[in-house]
Amino acid sequence: MQNNLKSRENLSNFLTLLTSSHEEERLGMEEVIDECKTFYFAGKETTATLLTWALLLLAKHQEWQDKAREEVIRVCGKTGLPGAENLNELKITTIVLNETLRLYSLAGTVTRQTLKDVQLGDLQIPAKMELYLAFPSVHCDTKIWGEDADEFNPARFAKPRKHQAAFLAFGLGPEPA
Ligand code: HEM
Predict the structure, then answer these.
(1) In the chain, alpha helices (H)
(2) Which of 13, 15, 46 has the most ligand 1 atoms within 8 A of CB, as the residue to mutate?
(3) 63 vs 42, more confident
């Protein structure tokens, strides 16, 4: 009941935000509906699929399940829910979710377009070229992640990454206009 009330309150905040921009920038009804659909699709499918893969991986790797459970109970209590104030303390949970996203990316690719001619390693890429960045080939590259790149090992996210662009689960850089 409490959660229902909370999500209804959040929904009205979200709608308030969408409908409360300045007069000249105000969205029309169709645009508000489209934005709601985008958020529903972009927000629900992603989190539901991530949680499904994470639960499967935790079922297969009980040692990580024990660590994650211990952390959640320590930070949130036996019946409490995580909130903005304690999300930062959920370190094990975060590395488990990142490792899940590395192995089972929810988006397959992101698209980027070059603004000007660029050289990337040996590649000479002309301006206005569309590039499709395939997540699995980056996320499972043994040159970046090591020989165990196909294995579930959240500990790899506990240390700083050498290549910041090697983990693209949430995209990287601005989207093409
Ligand atoms: C595990 C959770 C999520 C993952 C892995 C994820 C991943 C992504 C990726 C890869 C993109 C494309 C970014 C790019 O091209 O650079 C994206 C776009 C977007 N995401 Fe998420 N996302 C997640 C959760 C959410 C949630 C919870 C919301 C909102 C409630 C959301 C809203 C959006 C929106 C609005 C866009 C832009 C869509 C557009 O191009 O119009 N995402 N997300």
Answers:
(1) 2-19, 29-40, 46-60, 62-76, 91-103, 135-139, 142-145
(2) 46
(3) 63
